[in-house]
Amino acid sequence: RASRRGGGRLAMDRRWILYALAFLVTSSVSGVVYGWPALRRDLLDEGGLTENELGAVFTCGAWSVQGGRFLVGIARDKYGTKIMVCVCLSLVLCGSVLVASSKSDNLLGLCFGMLFLGMGSGAQLCVQPVAGLFPEATSTAMASLSGAFQLSGLVFLACSAVATAGAGRFGAYMGHAGVVAVLFIFSIKALPSGVSFDEEKEDVSQANDAETERETEMTDEKKKADGKDQDVFAVDDKATADATALTLTPNKTPRHFGADRGALLTCDEFLCLVAWFSVMVTPSQYYVLSVGYQLERKGDADGSFSRAFTLLYGFSAPLAPLAGVCADYLGVAFAQFLATALSLIGYAILFVEKPLSFQYVGMASYSVGRMFLFATFFANVGRRFGYKHYGAAVGVGMLASAVLSMLQYPMFQAALESKTNLDAMNVVCVVCAAACLPYCAWLGARERNEWRERRREDAPPRWRGDENENAA
User: Fold this and answer.
1) Residue partners of 260: CB distance under 8 A and separation at least 6
2) Could you tell me the maximum CA-CA distance found in the chain, to the nearest angstrom?
3) Is 270 exposed, middle or buried (0-12, 13-18, 19+ CB in 10 A)?
4) How far apart are CA 317 and CA 63, in angstroms?
5) CA–CA dist 273, 265 (Å, integer)
């Protein structure tokens, strides 16, 4: 008994170590490119690139964050967590070195630097299943990692501060590369080689299943040989549990939970989720790309509001567990509604010209909404479809959003032409968010029906209206 308690403590310690490493990896590399306004301001001060060219630099990074995760998701399911995290960290290291060493007028070098930084963000996708080690609060654990994603947006701002303090852009971003190298070493040592973060339990479970199957076969053979029918009502505990699970699963879980990959990726609910995410990501990416330019047009001459946006974006991370709590207790539909509504408010406030300080409200609303956007997408996949094909499901969503979000650059090019076009692009953002609200209502209705069914199944017979059947 003491040995079991010691093993339990060891397992508990191990899962927190893995979670801490996952959090550090995510907060250091996953959403670095979204701290763009800080790097953009530094590059403007150094001179060499036009606003249009700077937009192209960010687009390379933003696209690779979304598109790269499709490949990373598929590769993770095939090659395992450790290999793919190390590949992603290597890409981020290369990206930091390129950003550090490229001159301010080197468009190609900066584009590739941002591209590699974005591709390496797939490390978050690889480590997110660590949330499965916390069955009592899976969505909260998942959402906290989305908060770490948001926190990583402070990396560019921190590098900017270090550069201003005397290290220069080269010293600041080489420092970030050094941090990534340390995480690479720890990842090799600690992360599981396979897909599951609970490899030992999985191996033991498989061994027990095989042993149970062998014992059952031997017992059946002995009974047939002896011709004895006693114990015909004795049933193996595991078999009972499995049969019970098979019986209850349809009523206890969402209808597509644990489905085969083909069925999962083509079901109505997953397609609607991908559509919602893709439509929401496009204006969200455009906001990060254009907010510095829009604030400067409104009077932010010294870039203080752009720095404030980066701070608000990063420091909204502590609210990430709230997204998980909403998903766990109020449903993913409600959490997705909050993401949609808060983002919509952020876009709408861009129409306000005076006072400039009112933009703090819009930037805060957008930052929390964006954090909810990604947190609830990941939570939805885990809660409603399971982790069997998690990498593929998230990867497909990321790829679809990457393709659609390519519109951000032509939107920005159009916005640079005139104030009228700039306002028109903000209208597009508001319309995109508003168009997603009916989906949230539809998903909410589906969740409520599942909850009613679950309560009906769990209720005593007389509460289900089955008195007549029982009497008969």
Assistant:
1) none
2) 93
3) buried
4) 22
5) 11
pLDDT of 207 higher than 90: no
- Could you tell me how far CA 416 lies from the centroid of its own chain? 31
Cβ neighbors of 328 (< 8 A, separation 6 or more) are: 137, 138, 139, 140
Query: Can you say how many angstroms the Cα of residue 421 is from the centroid of all Cα atoms in its chain?
Result: 32
CA gap 65, 91 in Å, rounded: 12
352: which 2 tokens?
Answer: 């306000």
Tell me which residue has tokens 């005593």: 460
Phi and psi at residue 270, in whole multiples of 5°?
A: -70, -40
User: How many alpha carbons fall within 13 Å on the CB side of residue 458?
Assistant: 9
Q: What is the pLDDT of residues 47-56, one digit of tens each?
A: 888 888 998 9
The model's pTM: 0.71
Tokens 């957008």 locate to 366
The tokens describing 347, both together, are: 């876009």
Whether the CB-CB separation of 132 and 199 falls below 8 Å is answered with: no
Q: Give the CA dihedral 363, 319, 400, 424, nearest 10 degrees.
A: -20
Backbone φ and ψ for 325, nearest 5 degrees, come out as -65, -45
H or E element: which one contains 381? helix 359-385
Phi, psi of 388 (to 5 degrees): -60, -45
Nearest-angstrom CA–CA distance, 202 and 345: 45
Omega within 30 of 0 (cis) for the link into 129? no
Q: What is the pLDDT of residues 55-91, one digit of tens each?
A: 899 989 888 887 777 788 778 878 888 999 999 999 9
**Token pair in block for residue 24:** 């550090």
Residue of 194, 165, 188, 128 lying closest to 383 (CA atoms)? 128
Q: Where are the alpha helices (DSSP H) in 47-167?
A: 51-79, 81-101, 107-119, 123-127, 138-151, 155-162
Quickly tell me which residue has 């220069």 as its tokens.
168
Please work out, in degrees rounded to the nearest 5, the angle formed at the alpha carbon of residue 216 by the alpha carbons of 215 and 221: 100
